[in-house]
Amino acid sequence: MKVSLPFFLFILCCIPEGYAGGFEYNFQGQKQAGMGNTGTGTLLDAGSVFFNPGAVSFLDTTFTFNLGAHFQSSRTGYLESAPGTYQIEMQREMDAPFSTYAAWKKKPASRLSISFGIYSPFGFSTRWDDNWKGQFLVLHSYLTSLFFQPTLSYKLCDKLGIGAGFVYATGSYDFKKALPIQFSDGYYATESLHGSFNGIGFNGGLFYKINEHFSLGLNYRSAVNASISSGTASFDVPLSLTSEYPNGNFSMTIKMPSVTTLGAGYKSGKFLFALDFNYTAWSSTDSFRIKYSSHTSSLQDLSSPRMYKNSYAVRAGVQYKMNENLQARLGLYFDNSPVQLGYVSPEMPDADKVGFTCGASWKIGKYVRLDGSILYEEGLKRTDTNSETQFSGSYKTRVLVPGIGMSVVF
Hints:
Elements: H1 5-8, H2 30-34, H3 48-51, E1 63-70, E2 75-79, E3 87-89, E4 98-104, E5 112-119, E6 124-127, E7 140-155, E8 160-182, E9 188-209, E10 214-221, E11 224-236, E12 248-256, E13 259-268, E14 271-280, E15 287-292, E16 302-305, E17 311-321, E18 326-335, E19 353-363, E20 368-379, E21 382-385, E22 392-409
């Protein structure tokens, strides 16, 4: 299959996520993003509420506040399998997921810390042209999530901290596809789904400061089963078929997997090095099920296999303190896709990814610091035939994601 170079060259900017494996987002802090999205075995700021609640107890300030956002506009290219020559680019979508954290101690030497985080760890955004070849599989599909996490952290001794937070998750899911039914003017009928969900979970971590140079961290973020109990299913079909495709409700459960991370940090002079290993239990996502409130001979409950496998990511980063007011960061990572051969679909054409990051912080006053990061992600080309739909082809994605944030410490 011979493809012109421009077809596979996409430079993007803007969204809520540079995707990690599957539909996991990995932009939960500006400093951490600049260091390859590491943060479990190191303490950088209040972003540890997400990366490792056990490390929050080691913050040597009374109050720390972080606010930041990332901006991504991801474009994916599709090329039909040979001997076909059809090719198309996914439409650009813009989002701006954000994260915010606050941590408080009665005094800097206190062992107990109270903190709170709001962040978006899962989601995806897909939009194809209305008349593209895969329109009967998906036209557009969106998942947005927002997690709220009150957290307690306690320093058991000078070297060991422990922390845990309750997680309340909320968000929404939207999906639209064409139906193989034509109106008199030639346009195809459509099905649209919209629903809001909620779920609960927890985030816990241990942080061990071996000495002034070495630190280790262990973080576990539990699975969250997000339930849509009364979503809206609507059908735009010819009048003669409205009884076969009645508008109504639907229910489904979106399984957001658990993530276990082991991290390490090493500080030497002006340098801070970080290494994280993520293990995500994607195998819990074995199928995609939708239950409709009404059933007809043409409308039955959907059960579509996904058969995700557990996946991993390896991340590394370095920070250099240039002076008292300026810090610079670099990072890289490899992210293994949970989507197996035979299950790649245009709704979420996931692939193994390699990412490169950079970032900086600039202190602009006694209490305020500006943080910035940039990520470039190269998705490996993925060629597959879906075993359920027999839809085949090649997908390729490249992403550029800038981010900006602010820290307040006193």
